[in-house]
Amino acid sequence: MYLFVPHTQRQDLISMFSIRWLISQKAFEFVIYAIIITNGISVVVDIIVFSNTPQNERQKKIRELHWYHMVFICVYATEALLKLLGLGLRKYFRSGWNIFDFFVTVAGFIGVVSTSFSFIVCVRPLRLLLLFKVKKRYHDLFETIGVLLPRMARVAVVILLMYYSFGIIGIECFSGLELKDCCVNTSWEGAYKEGGYHLNNFDDLLHSYGKRL
């Protein structure tokens, strides 16, 4: 049956199976892990070098690091593209790890390309979390957390409602109390001011939440 497939489609099938074979190899996976570790080490080195760079030379250093990080982003984008071609869109995004990897790659690319979103580059170290896939028990742990999170959302809503209720009660009962000078002329006056205990109040909902925490 394969012989009756048109030549163009036959080449596409060969390419798809070749890519699928490549991404399924342990060697491919460990090469990506090695690149991730190298990138993580480079981030630490970059921080140390940048902190020791004189103020007037930092803009030049930023431009150097810009292209340096772009190389890693291109490697990660190539990996994501190969997996998308080999696994297909649906199967690729069925894995939580692939979704996480895709998000970090896109965010890193946006942070490098656009200066308006340069703060996004702080997500790059999160890629080191992918190393947890090396150990199956860590993999199982994250999968369990992924199953529990949607169910924990209901618990979080209940806790939030409880905090809201107690916060409103605290505002009604204790708002407006003068706490800043409540320990004047006592043995606790110095420690009270230095500790900022007067900030623990019920004057508004935000402070009430902080008090409950």
UniProtKB/TrEMBL annotation:
<dbReference type="GO" id="GO:0022832">
    <property type="term" value="F:voltage-gated channel activity"/>
</dbReference>
<dbReference type="InterPro" id="IPR028801">
    <property type="entry name" value="TPC1_animal"/>
</dbReference>
<feature type="transmembrane region" description="Helical">
    <location>
        <begin position="144"/>
        <end position="166"/>
    </location>
</feature>
<dbReference type="GO" id="GO:0005765">
    <property type="term" value="C:lysosomal membrane"/>
</dbReference>
<dbReference type="GO" id="GO:0010008">
    <property type="term" value="C:endosome membrane"/>
</dbReference>
<keyword id="KW-0812">Transmembrane</keyword>
<protein>
    <recommendedName>
        <fullName>Ion transport domain-containing protein</fullName>
    </recommendedName>
</protein>
<keyword id="KW-1133">Transmembrane helix</keyword>
<dbReference type="Pfam" id="PF00520">
    <property type="entry name" value="Ion_trans"/>
</dbReference>
<feature type="transmembrane region" description="Helical">
    <location>
        <begin position="30"/>
        <end position="53"/>
    </location>
</feature>
<feature type="domain" description="Ion transport">
    <location>
        <begin position="26"/>
        <end position="209"/>
    </location>
</feature>
<keyword id="KW-0472">Membrane</keyword>
<feature type="transmembrane region" description="Helical">
    <location>
        <begin position="102"/>
        <end position="123"/>
    </location>
</feature>
<dbReference type="GO" id="GO:0005216">
    <property type="term" value="F:monoatomic ion channel activity"/>
</dbReference>
<dbReference type="InterPro" id="IPR005821">
    <property type="entry name" value="Ion_trans_dom"/>
</dbReference>
<dbReference type="InterPro" id="IPR027359">
    <property type="entry name" value="Volt_channel_dom_sf"/>
</dbReference>
<feature type="transmembrane region" description="Helical">
    <location>
        <begin position="65"/>
        <end position="82"/>
    </location>
</feature>
